[in-house]
User: Fold this.
Amino acid sequence: MEPVHVAVSAVAALLPIMNPIGALATFAGLTDGVECAAMKRQAVMTGVYVLAILTVFALLGTSVLEGLGALSRVIGFLTLAIGVELVTHGVLAAK
Assistant:
């Protein structure tokens, strides 16, 4: 694949996960009443932390999942089950 195609696919996959609009609202609520300089410093540090975490998982994520073997399937299933529970708000379990 072309590098541009890979980059666009990665951004398209990460945007819904990272939810920048929701994160902006959370950041605004958490920094309400904070001085402007401190707010800017916190925003930069948050960006650095997010970049570092994404970089580590981009470089090591496949190795970690391969190392987990069958356990990665269990973790994936649990993640799916939690996601369905969050989306349905327990409607499926109530029936």
Notes: The longest helix spans residues 36-68. The radius of gyration is 18 Å. The mean pLDDT is 87. DSSP finds five helices and no strands in the chain.
